[in-house]
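Internal ticket #5521
Category: modeling
Description: The requester needs a full-assembly model to guide mutagenesis choices. All entity lines are attached below as received. Residue total reported by intake: 637.
Assigned to: D.W.
Attached entities:
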Amino acid sequence: MTPERRAFLGWGAAAAAGAALAPGLRLVELALARSPEEASSALERWGLLIDAEKCADCDACVTACHQENGVTAHGRPATDAQWIRKASLRDRSTGRVQTLPLLCQHCEHAPCVDVCPTGASFRRADGIVLVDKHTCIGCRYCVMACPFGARSFLHEPVTGQKPDVPRGKGTVESCTLCVHRVDRGLTPACVEACNRDGKGAMAFGDLNDAAGELARRLRAEPSSALRADLALNPGVRYQHL
Amino acid sequence: MASVQYREIEGRSAGFYGLLGVLALVITAGLAAAWTMEHHGHVITGMTNRIVWGTPHVFAVFLIVAASGALNVASVASVFGRDLYKPLARLSGLLAVALLAGGLAVLVLDLGRPERLVVAMTHYNFKSIFAWNIFLYTGFFAVVALYLWTMFERRMNGYTARAGVLAFLWRLVLTTGTGSIFGFLVAREPYDSALLAPLFIVMSFSFGTAAFVLVLMAACRWSGRPLGDALLARLGNLLGIFVAAVLYFVAVHHLTNLYIARRLDLERFLLVEGGVYTALFWIGQVLAGSVVPLVLVFAVRTRAALAAAAACVIAGGLAQVYVIIVGGQAYPQQIFPGKDVSSSFFDGAVASYAPSLPEVALGAGGVALALALTVLGLKLLPFLPRSLADAGPAKA
């Protein structure tokens, strides 16, 4: 056997072993993410923690959300869909001014889910509240029921849809917590943008994971739910409100 | 009242075809409006993400509420045994079914995806009051059809009282359901009250009786059938009592809100500073829709006064439903109590809304559909007695 032949066989064996093992290594990566077929699990409860103190006078979260989800505006703010918006608050008695992002609060006892006649509004086991675009009849009762104005009705035809984000004229939609990203093990686009371009006011995580950063902060630091009087147990919590 | 003779209206005059022609035109306009809205999307209407239920819902809810109230005259006869009203029971049932059909047509055609009605019929979330209402509405058609059958079919006459009780209970539940669509909206201060269910029930008595009076007077006049003053006077008294009952519930609702500190802003909006909604409340609902008809039915007491009173009640009723539905949404949701809020979503601001032509056309189309069904019903089946003269049933 010549050295060339020996080297060739050696490289060939390595290549064959690599070709055989690579899918296996890829499987390890895939196993850590949930497959599309695998149902969401109640072991997780996805949520956000938003620090109003850190929230800057920017709209990085809004831009990123609408870009990620293909939510385009037509220059008609009264009818354009808004999955997330920046609200400015001014305390009537103290005059203190704040700004914060407002979006679907992914309630445990979601009023939109309760009132939906067809069950199109539903809550995944992991707490993400979604609209089934195939069974939404466009009655808008969920918009009436939502305490946070989180839902938009699609008033005109939709173009430029993203494959992961089905939308349609005549149906209702709202923040999906970027469910397509979460299922791949990523964070929602708004959180990513806030940490990259903003001041890191938004944190995403599993409320059920006691060892996780989100649960740890919620345990250690004060936070509040919007419309806490309604006892909806939202997945989105605020700080320094 | 076996001696009462019912007869179809002749329905061959120019006036009859003229009336049907006008109604058909309005229905066509309503269908065209619905088609345009579905084609372009709701962007061509006055509705927005803040006012998601607009003028079509005002008409639809008014018609649905009036439908259950129109059955009232039949209930007074069958359930409460007032023989005077028995000859009117068939027309009462017909009008109830027709008004409900008109209201539901508007509601369905205003959906974002009306072609998915079959989805609404096959997928149910039983925690939703809307889903219950689908059964309450379809059930109402069936119960009233059964009720009418017991009236029309001589062999079934013995069951009329029992069918009447069933229909009466059903309509109470139905209107409770309609009121609860709003009453269960805990997140909106203008709604969120169990009082809305009984309020809607007395509204239905009032609106339905007014609609019945007008249809009865028109049907008798245009078909040349006698209609007694005493009967009309009794209907006028009934209408007056219902109008007063609505005022009472409205007053209690507002007084309750006025006592709750965090709802003072809401009451200031509705009663003082709400612009068009305040005007519609005081001038439309209270003055034109309540005070004027009360004076007309209890002080003036003429035939023309009753007709005018009924028309006023209908106009005032539409104003009331407009204030409840559109005004209730225009008032901003209180997400951050004690704070002034502003955003691109118009948080914290009173939402603006102006009815658009397609919305009004769709709503009017529903009214026309209800009236056309009534007119056709009167021609096809003997719903109307040959005479409603006071002296008793006319001779054949």
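Resolution: model delivered.
Comment from assignee: Residues 28 and 169 of chain A are 40 Å apart (CA to CA).
Ticket closed.
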